[in-house]
Amino acid sequence: MKLKLFYITLMISACSNTPMNSQDYWRAKGYRLGELGYESNSEKVLSQSQRENYDESAFMAGYASGREVYCSPESAFKKGIEGTKYKGQCEDSPNSIRIRAEWERGWHSFISMDTFRWR
């Protein structure tokens, strides 16, 4: 009986989580939108900023980290091979030429796979 009670208590405590504070919440939101390739002035970002308790510095720090992930050559190739169009989100990045080249390499692979499938 004591063992059952222990396991039940363990299971219940495993399901609980601590809520994020406002700074962590906005940093995570910014990271997610940056990682997905949204521009910092996009409608999605602006709608997020109009919520209460908006922490702009945390949001922009998270956004910069997420955008760094999005604007990596490895990510660009992956986006290209998945068929995701590149809209110049990383043109101001120091690696912009390599990023575009990797995306194009992935895009050409995506196109050739698509063509090959339908033959």
UniProtKB/TrEMBL annotation:
PROSITE patterns noted in UniProt: PROKAR_LIPOPROTEIN
A family per Pfam: DUF2799
InterPro entries: DUF2799
Domain of life assignment: Bacteria
Name used for this protein in its record: Lipoprotein
Organism (species): Vibrio hangzhouensis
